[in-house]
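Structure in, sequence out. Go:
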């Protein structure tokens, strides 16, 4: 039997890379699509069995070309994210928020549209949202709208595309390069303070979220579901 084929979009770091590695370790042939040439080149040295493709997830034609080159895709995982969208509503810049939607929501949607003709009938689509979509955190109205739009795709697409399965993971705080703008000491202090407030008392690693992502991507019984993997952040005040 041929190995299942996975395509992880945005898979050169953080949750995407951890997911790609775990899928590989479970026997899949794993392709990664990403914009960064340098990161793809580095990956060819550290993880030569992950097959890299340079493409922007928001570019419908580029992603369609990647999917056509791969052939049939069993598991599509979209881990694209941006760094914008946070701020009080009174000061929220509309141009910045449009960029945030471009970087995440429109990129998720374009990737799904591009790869869909190449998905196996028993395949799956797994998206990555975030806790901001379902929690009342001050200063997150913009990014909450972006992640809410991504997560809102799940149920209608699961019904529309059946038997292809569609799910999402909704992480909370995750120790990934997304936080690299903060100095190391400030990040450690913030994570330590946040962990004390979380019911789980734990800041997720990329591997924690990858484990859940791979489970719902590969389990034939799960569809139309957004799995909350936020350590309980939606249950408490993180302000």
């Amino acid at each position: 039997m041929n190995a299942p084929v996975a395509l992880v979009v945005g898979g050169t770091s953080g949750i995407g890379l951890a997911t790609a590695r775990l899928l590989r370790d479970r026997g899949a042939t794993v392709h990664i699509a990403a914009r960064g040439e340098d990161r793809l080149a580095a990956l060819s040295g550290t993880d030569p069995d992950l097959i890299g493709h340079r493409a922007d997830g928001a570019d419908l034609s580029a992603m369609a070309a990647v999917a056509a080159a791969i052939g049939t895709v069993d598991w599509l995982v979209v881990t694209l994210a941006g760094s914008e969208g946070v701020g009080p509503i009174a000061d929220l810049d509309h141009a910045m928020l449009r960029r945030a939607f471009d970087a995440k929501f429109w990129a998720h949607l374009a990737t799904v549209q591009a790869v869909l003709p190449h998905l196996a009938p028993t395949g799956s689509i797994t998206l990555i949202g975030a806790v901001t979509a379902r929690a009342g955190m001050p200063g997150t109205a913009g990014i909450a709208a972006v992640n809410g739009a991504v997560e809102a795709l799940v149920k209608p697409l699961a019904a529309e595309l059946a038997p292809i399965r569609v799910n999402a993971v909704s992480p909370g705080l995750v120790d990934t390069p997304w936080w690299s703008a903060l100095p190391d000491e400030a990040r450690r202090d913030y994570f330590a303070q946040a962990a004390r407030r979380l019911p789980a008392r734990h800041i997720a690693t990329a591997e924690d979220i990858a484990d859940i992502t791979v489970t719902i991507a590969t389990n034939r019984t799960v569809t139309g579901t957004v799995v909350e993997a936020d350590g309980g952040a939606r249950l408490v005040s993180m302000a």
